[in-house]
Automatic annotation (TrEMBL):
It holds the Pfam family DrrA1-3_C. SMART domains: AAA (SM00382). It comes from Kutzneria kofuensis. Residues 6-233 form the ABC transporter domain. This is ABC-2 type transport system ATP-binding protein. InterPro entries: AAA+_ATPase, ABC_transporter-like_ATP-bd, ABC_transporter-like_CS, DrrA1/2-like_C, P-loop_NTPase. One of its GO terms (molecular function) is ATP hydrolysis activity. Belongs to the ABC transporter superfamily. Keywords: ATP-binding, Nucleotide-binding, Transport.
Length: 303
């Protein structure tokens, strides 16, 4: 793999009889935003903690720039946990300077970097407040600064948008895009799939500790079930009867949404619609990431 790539290679983890991860495999390339999505308990946080060295894997390896991640490498990773890991009674700026120094920065560099990020994320007026006295959204901003203040080479963020208002979401999104544009691999999990779809270069969908779908957003949407929107105003309610591999998903007057299964042919659908009279619309409906996620999870659950 190219330099700067974070690789998760066949990671497995068990807690007693519970299989948390099974050969979890994917990579996050330099300069890309990778969205890591899945239901609660799917294995996202466990994967991230193993990447950080907080947990040990039973099998598999985490590599960055082609080499196994060690203590020196982990100091170059910016990590934002889902559960806030800040000292609640410590002042925000004081705490961020301290955390930057733990990553090896000098006191002067730590103060300068902290002040720059505090200003960037609009926390200047709250910089000397105790963390516990900040709003949840501002605590989330402080947590993000803690991940960024030491100029990390890799970013791993667990639910970074949780609890943020729309303005803060925009600021967070802009910061993550800037980091990726600098060549930093950015891995983040989120349940806000519309946001993942808008931001990410690639997405991985995980279920029961395994990666079940991965790729670019457009690529994944193309891989979903084929649905067609057909607007045939003179068509009878049963105009699709007899068409192999065609299932009606929704119907509203002459406008019908059909899904093609095995043996389904869009040209046969069009021909059948034209036999009923004029066709005002015949388009392919690409599933959103949310719809694709539901399909992938339900298919896996049924298998």
């Amino acid at each position: 793999m190219a330099e700067g790539v974070l690789e998760i290679d066949r990671i497995s983890k068990r807690y007693g009889t519970v299989r948390a991860l099974h050969e979890m495999t994917f990579d996050v390339r330099a300069g890309e935003l990778f969205g890591f999505v899945g239901s609660n308990g799917a294995g996202k946080t466990t994967t991230m903690r193993i990447a950080l060295g907080v947990l040990a894997a039973d099998a598999g390896e985490v590599r960055w720039a082609g080499k196994p991640v060690d203590l020196a490498t982990r100091r170059r990773i910016g990590y934002m946990p889902e559960e806030r890991g800040l000292y609640p009674k410590m002042k925000a700026r004081e705490q961020l300077v301290y955390l930057a120094q733990l990553h090896g920065m000098s006191a002067g560099d730590a103060r300068r970097a902290t002040d720059a990020w505090i200003d960037r994320l609009g926390l200047t007026a709250r910089r000397d407040d105790e963390v516990q006295k900040l709003s949840l959204g501002n605590q989330q901003r402080v947590q993000l600064i803690a991940a960024l203040v030491h100029d990390p080479a890799v970013l791993v963020l667990d639910e970074p948008f949780s609890g943020l208002d729309p303005v803060a979401v925009d600021v967070m999104s802009e910061v993550l895009r800037e980091q990726a544009d600098r060549g930093v691999p950015v891995l983040f999990s989120s349940h806000q799939l519309d946001l993942v779809e808008r931001l990410c270069d690639r997405v991985g969908i995980v279920r029961n500790g395994q990666m079940v779908a991965s790729g670019g957003v457009a690529e994944l949407r193309e891989s979903g079930p084929v649905r067609l929107v057909v607007d045939a105003p003179d068509a009878a309610a049963d105009w699709t009867a007899g068409l192999a591999g065609v299932r009606v998903v929704a119907a509203d007057g002459g406008r019908t949404v059909v899904e093609l299964g095995e043996g389904g042919d869009d040209q046969e659908v069009l021909a059948a619609a034209l036999k009923t009279g004029p066709v005002r619309e015949f388009t392919r409906l690409r599933p959103s990431l949310t719809e694709l996620f539901r399909n992938v999870v339900s298919e896996q659950g049924a298998s």
